[in-house]
Design a protein that fits this description.
Length: about 160
Amino acid sequence: MALPKWERKTRIFLCVFGLCLSVYALYVELSRERNPDYRAMCDLGESVSCSKVFTSRWGRGFGLVQFFADKDSLLNQPNSVLGIIFYTLQMGLGLSLSKKAVVFLVFSSWVSVAGSLYLASILAFVLGDFCMVCVSTYIINFALLFTNLKRRGAIEGMKEKAG
């Protein structure tokens, strides 16, 4: 079985877009840490500011790692670094047709969607901000989940036909 063309193109588009957004988020965060006056392209106003979000407590380790590791710990990475790892794995494993890869793709997508819902609630109800980069990654994560669920369904369908 070969990957359907739509899935391959969709996955590459979503992962490359997610990688670009994650790299940009990391760039903004590091630039803001070096220069507190740095203004990112995604900073459009007081309540529409991605750099405010990226440099907040929730911009590293989802705001949770700091409860069991030091703020400057290697474990407390910017969320954008986690995004870079996630989108790279999604793209790489997405090329595999193995059942184990599909299980990991679906599981990691559910985790990313749970993280997106958590961070979206922090964005709206705690920070009171709108972050275009963040919301774009949430949409990408939902789209990757859909893509991975379609893949799982196709592989399970093949297993039923073969059996």
